[in-house]
Amino acid sequence: MNKLLIVGTVAFDAIETPFGKTDKILGGAATYIGLASNFFNVDAAVVSVVGEDFPKEYLDLLENKGVNIEGIEIVKGGKTFFWSGKYHNDLNSRDTLVTELNVLADFNPVVPQAYKNSDVVLLGNLHPIVQSGVLNQMSERPKLVVLDTMNFWMDCALPELLDVIKRVDVITINDEEARQLSGEYSLVKAAAKIHTMGPKYVVIKKGEHGALLFHNKDVFFAPALPLEEVFDPTGAGDTFAGGFAGYIAQSENISFSNLKNAIIYGSNLASFCVEKFGTERMENLDKNEVNARLKQFKALTQFEIELEE
Amino acid sequence: MNKLLIVGTVAFDAIETPFGKTDKILGGAATYIGLASNFFNVDAAVVSVVGEDFPKEYLDLLENKGVNIEGIEIVKGGKTFFWSGKYHNDLNSRDTLVTELNVLADFNPVVPQAYKNSDVVLLGNLHPIVQSGVLNQMSERPKLVVLDTMNFWMDCALPELLDVIKRVDVITINDEEARQLSGEYSLVKAAAKIHTMGPKYVVIKKGEHGALLFHNKDVFFAPALPLEEVFDPTGAGDTFAGGFAGYIAQSENISFSNLKNAIIYGSNLASFCVEKFGTERMENLDKNEVNARLKQFKALTQFEIELEE
Lengths: 309, 309
Known about the structure:
Chains A, B: This is Sugar/nucleoside kinase (Ribokinase family). Two copies of one chain form a homodimer. Chain A is 36% helix and 24% strand. Chain A is of the alpha/beta class and 309 residues long. The first copy, chain A, has one domain: Ribokinase (UDP-N-acetylmuramoyl-L-alanine:D-glutamate ligase, 3-Layer(aba) Sandwich). In chain A, the strands form two sheets. In chain A, strands 1, 5, 6, 7, 10, 11, 12, 13, 14 and 15 form a ten-stranded mixed beta sheet that branches. In chain A, strands 2, 3, 4, 8 and 9 form a five-stranded mixed beta sheet that branches. In chain A, helix 3 packs parallel to helix 5 (158-165), helix 6 packs across helix 7 (187-196) and helix 8 (236-251) runs antiparallel to helix 9. The longest helix of chain A is centred in the last third of the chain and has 18 residues, at 256-273. The N and C termini of chain A lie far apart (47 Å). In chain A, 51% of the residues are buried. The model of chain A has no long low-confidence stretch (mean pLDDT 95). Chains A and B meet through helix 7, strand 15, helix 9 and helix 11 of A and helix 7, strand 14, helix 9 and helix 11 of B.
């Protein structure tokens, strides 16, 4: 079984959407990625940090989903990273209400010995120095390194971000971030410029408008599934990245054609994530539902036109 | 050859985008639709009105593209409809600077005798009473009636709009208009509600984010082609509608599967329209370019995933 190493936050979230609000619930990029990886035949491990206040049942949940949690450090007397946000009525934008870094402020990731030779590494959205630190611990170059990041690091740690971007195969960012990173408005031009920074593959996430995969002159588009209700977008991007990386790790194939399938899988899993608050839907999702929705994705996008000569 | 009847404006436009500005040039929904219909084996005719100031070479252009212009009334001493707009930097929104209705204010469309039995009718964006007036002149129920409209008529002539919507098979509107017309934020729910108003098929145009085709529980998505440069979005929606209706008229097949192909063709043609100012690109486009781009649409969207059991 191929190994997938996941680095990212394991956290508390408090979420408010037009449909309701939660108390502190399980959140964090690595949590969503880990839950997504459970749908693939991979040996996944999370490297992260939590405080002593983090409930054991949350860690048990990840472990029960087959995620190795040896690399999740529990800081004695420490408090877990906490994020709180409120979504606007259209669910496409949100305000951050609270960000308490807590134990994340001094996070020094340690990759478990057994995962230093992981086949695929997914560097979830964290300080680029933490992301580089993980790559430095690998005993051999992974077959594929995927990096997720956000505008915050472009604003505050651009040189360090550019350093780690040089070392990865795939970058996943949203459309605004692609524009900011490249200085190009056209996403085609933005992707071309980001290619020159290192990543062979550029994935641009457009939320409800789907995701684009660029590889040199090739481009592929995975739509988001049109849904009757979007309940809570939190974690959709991480779930997308987790599905993407999980599919590649399972199939051990980093061709463009396989990466196309991977972003379809990522979109598929993300379409479930938004149906309930927080991780609830992903915790209770089964593989038959995922397969059924894959058929919906095919119906949504596949067509038969004979080309005229 | 099947007949396609096109009703809409033939006009002067003056356009400003971040890339430049034009004087009064050829514009109007029916112009773009007519130019798009030229890529299909159909007998297309335009019903519209212009003033005496309208250059003969513009009418010749349409005629040379195989569009019957017998139904374009030339009002003696009248002035042609004029629209002027300025696009914002992102090209996704624009301000209307000038709207001079001129001869359009008293437009009373007359369908030429030879087109009263048209197979497909495309009611371009005009006052819903004008749209109904055209349907009233048909000698038999067309195989397919497509209606394009906009928020302006929802604000100013909703009862008349609802009357004509009852009589059509396909409505094409943008996402915000679908929300306004239905009172539903989710596009899935909006389409379901619009179905109950009459149209069996609901096409929701999302500009650079593609278009959705709804038919009861079925949904299909055609992306917009990611382009290096978008020069001028004017007429893209009309070109899309023209490609859609032209493809259906040519193929004489109103199945869901054929309508999927039709929105791919519409997106294909629209992707050219935006590459130059006004109608320039569409005037000089040839069928080989369209076929080549169809291959790009296939590459952009088609994937092969084996479903696991």
